[in-house]
Design brief:
Two copies of one chain form a homodimer.
Chain A lengths: L10 H10 L8 E2 L1 H8 L3 H14 L2 E3 L6 E3 L1 H12 L2 H17 L2 E8 L2 E8 L12 E2 L6 H9 L2 H10 L13 H14 L2 E4 L6 E10 L4 E11 L5 H7 L1 H17 L3
Antiparallel strand pairs in A: 1-3, 2-3, 4-5, 4-9, 5-6, 7-8, 8-9
Helix pairs in contact in A: 1-3, 2-3, 5-10, 6-8
Chain B binds a DNA duplex (30 and 30 nucleotides) through α3.
Chain lengths: 260, 260
DNA sequence: GAACGGTATTACGAATATAGTAATACTTTT
DNA sequence: AAAAGTATTACTATATTCGTAATACCGTTC
């Protein structure tokens, strides 16, 4: 918080970005008052920022109802951010290769603060469909999340667990912090994490952390995802941990040299 | 310009976005001085903005050489902008359908100021590969560009042509403004535009404008793209104008109701 | 068609964030 | 070890933003 109060932090820019951040697939248009309310920015300032963003083409305003949507410039920026993200560029080919070699679904994510950010994903056609969120809070319910948690240092782990609010996503979702801690213990000993239909029914995943070798910090995770219709947990445990750890170490190499 | 000087325009936000806009596939990292020079923002302010963007996670700074790259938050924003852009969402299924029905490569773009912004594209495997730019200035050398130019009102057309700097991309690229005007005339009479290997060798495209029916303005274009190895101009002219104009009118419907 | 409730937009003085110069710290090169 | 480059910090005048409040606009209801 201290950081944000100093002279070398631009509150104005922060507010503008908070406004842009309100728009996504589930919120394709919003009103001015709504934006003001959601961001806590007063109406005049909201008006100024929205006006600015509209003039620059990042947002556009309906002539009829004045509702606000993303503009073409935002679309361009989206493209650029996607293709200009070096970590994505260096991790993608590794995952593609493993995908073609092994013919299994693969997911990857970056740790940012206390959330996982979806990085790149390849899916086999057999995988049940579920719309993956870009930002993931429920670390405790996913293979990648548990892989990260199990390898964080105890202080950080406690900090995350303290703020956790458990949502029972499936019958198998770990129901308490105690169970989560126990599972994390198991994960640590096992060397990789297991998500046995805890996030979506019909889906078993195993996950491993991605490490910045130079800084010795956990920066993300990868997972292999299997439909229960074709794979059993036993099969997976017998055949895939090797693939997973190899993938994790290759990705770790890549992000280490990307200077994450 | 007047607009940008009033009280309801935030110069600070504009500058922050100009900085973010410097990062793309071809510019994955930049230095502070470089950013300051490119944007014309003085070094202290550049420092403040970059610092802000780093703290918010939109940029990240290498510990070693202090070089600046996109951060995870930018990647998320990219995702959101891409999937939250309603025009993309409404145009995509139309193009997908035509693609499956006709088995030909299709491209679409939005007009923003004097440039075309790549919206959505489907390619047949037979198409020669060329990396498409997200932003396109060379309207005169592409089917979509000429389709737009031919349907703009004369004043706007002249404004665009005045600033045009012709680059001879292939032997067939229209070499002068006079030839461009003549071709635009032909395009208008014909009802659709033809790009006969003027942009890339081996590629013939036909294009038609996308119109906002309510506002009666040109808002973009669509094109059908054919490799010369399998299609001749004659074949294309005989068989595909109908497909093209149908597609264009469907897309126009969609963007009209999207209230572009 | 007047009044109402909601939203967006404008006006303006007070509050404060930013600009810009210049000095310092830190790196890399020679 | 000096030089040339880059990044970071200090400091105050100035321009920008804040925030209240007034006004305009739009659609709905009575």
């Amino acid at each position: 918080m201290n950081n944000k109060n100093n002279q070398y932090f631009s509150k104005t820019l922060e507010k503008g970005l908070i406004i842009l951040d309100l728009f996504d697939r589930d919120h394709q248009h919003r009103g001015l008052t709504e934006i003001s309310r959601l961001t806590g920015i007063n109406k005049t300032s909201t008006y100024r920022f929205v006006n600015t963003l509209v003039q620059l083409g990042y947002l556009r305003k309906s002539v009829n109802d004045k509702s606000i949507r993303l503009g073409p410039k935002a679309f361009v920026l989206g493209h650029h951010f996607f293709h200009g993200f070096d970590i994505f560029q260096s991790v993608k080919p590794i995952i593609d290769k493993t995908f073609f070699d092994q013919k299994i679904s693969i997911d990857s994510a970056l740790l940012h603060g206390h959330t996982l950010i979806s990085l790149y994903r390849r899916e086999m056609p057999n995988l049940i469909y579920f719309r993956l969120p870009v930002i993931m809070d429920e670390l405790y319910a996913r293979a990648m999340g548990k892989a990260v948690l199990a390898n964080l240092d105890p202080k950080e782990l406690s900090a995350i667990l303290k703020n956790v609010h458990i949502t029972k996503l499936t019958p198998n979702t770990l129901p308490s912090k105690q169970k989560i801690r126990k599972d994390i213990e198991l994960t640590r000993n096992r060397g990789y994490s297991i998500n046995n239909e805890e996030y979506v029914e019909g889906l078993i995943c195993i996950g491993a952390p991605v490490t910045n070798y130079r800084e010795k910090t956990i920066v993300g995770a990868v997972s292999l995802d299997f439909p229960t219709s074709e794979y059993s947990l036993d099969m997976i445990r017998k055949n895939y941990p090797g693939v997973l750890t190899k993938l994790a170490s290759e990705v770790s190499e890549a992000v280490t040299s990307a200077d994450i």
